[in-house]
Amino acid sequence: MFNDLDPLLHSQLRLAVMSLLISVESAEFTFLKEKTKSTAGNLSVQLDKLSEAGYIQIVKSFRGKKPLTTCSITKKGIKAFEDYVNNLKQYINK
């Protein structure tokens, strides 16, 4: 019997963001945009979805006069990511 894959993490861009955030303390929006090769608009929408689910925390501030958005993964997000990976392994190993 297979466990369901988290539909929120089954999106390529959201999974890419979570994969990046799992290995760093935090990441700036521009870093995530560059690494995922996504548009600012699409990335912003996907980050909002992850934030609403409690998987990431978004902090908006300023660096000088420029807006700065920083993201970090939450404990809930770490568990969701680990569960997703473990569930995916069940599919691969069967």
Automatic annotation (TrEMBL):
GO MF: DNA binding
KW DNA-binding (keyword) present: yes
DNA-binding is among the record's keywords: yes
Pfam families in the record: HTH_34 (PF13601)
Domain spans labelled Winged helix DNA-binding: 13-92
InterPro entries for the chain: WH-like_DNA-bd_sf, WH_DNA-bd_dom, WH_DNA-bd_sf
Keywords in alphabetical order: DNA-binding
Protein name, entry field: DNA-binding transcriptional regulator, MarR family
Organism: Ohtaekwangia koreensis
